[in-house]
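Action item from last week, closing it out:
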Amino acid sequence: MTYSEAIKHMQNLRMFGTKLGLENPRRLASLVESPHKQLRFIHVAGTNGKGSVCAMLESVYREAGYRTGLFTSPHLISFRERIQVNRNLIPETTVARLSSELVELMATFPKGQKPTFFEMAVVMALCHFSEQKCDVVLWETGMGGRLDATNIVTPIASVITNIGLDHTRWLGDSHTEIAQEKSGIIKHGIPAFTATQQHEALSTIRSVAKTKKAELIEIDKSNIDFKLSLLGQHQQTNARLVYNVVNRLKSILPVSTEHIKSGLKTVSWAGRLQLVNIGLQKFLLDGAHNAEGALTLQRSLKDHFNKKSLVFILGMVNEKDGSGFCQKIAPIADRIILSPVKSDRSANPSTFEPVCQTANPKAKTLVVASLKQALEQCEKEHFVIITGSFYLVGEALEQLGIAPQAIKSERLLNDWGAPSGVNENNFHT
């Protein structure tokens, strides 16, 4: 099997949608001799900030000389971004080889119970990290936690960044319900950490930790500031969370204070308030896609770009609260260009035009047919913010020439389709 064939096969797995449950990934992992049982994981869940926290932890541990595994989603350009060792993308040849092996094993599953794309990706990552003899794996959940495929591992620490109203179709429409799902990564007797401040969510996390006799370390809004390469005051909260995790685990993974400082100072994470210069233009790329993310983006723009005219290119996918996002962003905008996202899940940008106009009648609002057209409309703008979806950010990286053009099927891998295998009416048990 070649790399392109592997990507094509994974694309075809989208027909199985998303399945929330652990039976399939456990079975598939067992068929490759359970590689996760030889690895140390820090499992990270939360509504926003999961990827940033994983990236920070990875940078700190790599700075300290450890061989790191990093598993995140979604990818911006290439599937290979999801699985990294010491920040090196998994090789195409390895993807091809492991795909061939896993496809053969997946053929043994009963009809109607085939693993999904994400379940396959999880087990592929486990195999690669085991083969590479990683000292520690920074392990981001896909969605939720309790029934997420990543939850087949037993970590050395469980981390919950925060709780907001996202993925409500699957996780519940209240902070309590969503916190219950994300708290599912907390394991018996394993230390847990959270930066959650929302009262109902925090109460739920505390209850789950108590039931599982897990030490819970809560990160407050202290005045400690770290020198960070990542923009945004919210990253200070993420950094404090990382600082506490690393210090608590020093008996297992010794790390010096200098390694922590250096790791946080040099960490990189694409698509999160990423500032790029193209000629005389500046572009700020941010994957914020929910109301909480919109508020964080607002605060960051005020902190770092307060005197600039704010021009937004905004595109979202259907299952997100696009109207809520626009209501938060539009009031600070001088100009808004609404674009579709290159995805089967793209929301119709025209839907958000009246929302933006109501929220800010003074802002010039325009609907276009593509990101390319949106960028053409911004040719004379000095500062442009591209936000609303990681898919839009990934496409922007391509359009601006910052990253190579992705194979279409690689981009489509993020379109995991409609959920299957879950009864949404009785999911929350």
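Closing note: The domain at 274-412 is CATH 3.90.190.20 (Protein-Tyrosine Phosphatase; Chain A).
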